[in-house]
Amino acid sequence: MSAIEGKTIWITGASSGIGEALARRLAEHNNFVIISSRGRESLLDVQKVAPTRIRVLPCDVSDDAGMDRAGRELAELTDHLDMVVACAGTCEYDDGLKLDSASYRRVFDANFFGAINTLRQALPLLSQSKAPVFAGVGSLSSVVGFPRAEAYGASKAALGYFLDALRADVSRTCLKVVHIRPGFIDTPLTERNDFDMPFLMTPEEAAACIEKGLLQGKSTIDFPRRLSWPLRFFGFFRWLWFRFSAPRMTRIQSLSARQ
Ligand SMILES: NC(=O)c1ccc[n+]([C@@H]2O[C@H](COP(=O)([O-])OP(=O)(O)OC[C@H]3O[C@@H](n4cnc5c(N)ncnc54)[C@H](OP(=O)(O)O)[C@@H]3O)[C@@H](O)[C@H]2O)c1
Question: At the N or C end, where does the chain have fewer CB atoms within 10 A?
């Protein structure tokens, strides 16, 4: 099979970037796709590409009570889910090591607790499928410690551990758990990045890599390889990363004059 076809799929974070590209691609391949994000209008725009195959379900994944309501609406849209892609996420950098806990909480609320809220609502419907898949979108940035990414990278590393623990917990069931770790993708999220983003990909290329990895039954989908391999190497030889790469990237010159 060269494409995912005929499945019922819920994608969060599908109003822009990677989630939108994946939703469009899967809808083109005759899947029934339920798309979520906070903004209804942008979801309705995405729905226009395939009005009969795409349904919108606006929700804030970080809002526990709101997600319970979304779960009830989800159950009205479908009696089962074959696949869920928890893609909703945000990024805030810690410039100058301010350690602003409110910023860290916002990032964790969307990237970590958002995925948990999504799974909580999806699980009863996933259990109605013969071969259900739950995929969480992490990031290659969690492989090693990146300067300024204390909040973002930690939230994605926490998500990675959550997915591993979940995989262990459901290892005697039919639920497949997938960890998707993209490199740099050209989306609204990375628009504000003021540093070099090696091997930058389009959201459409990212969506193609995700679909291919899912079709191949991978548990971890890392891309692009040109970035994931060097990062995994540094993840293994961590001292090299902290001795040579990190000092070139950090903007902090002294602890007393952080900027
Ligand atoms: N771009 C990259 O280089 C890159 C690399 C690695 C991983 N990722 C991950 O890929 C995922 C998608 O990112 P992207 O690059 O495609 O960014 P994006 O274009 O900014 O998309 C983020 C999506 O998440 C939604 N969202 C954000 N907070 C939400 C919340 N609390 N509840 C519901 N929806 C929410 C946004 O819609 P609303 O604002 O309307 O809610 C939007 O649809 C994120 O998890 C990101 O961390 C991105």
Answer: N
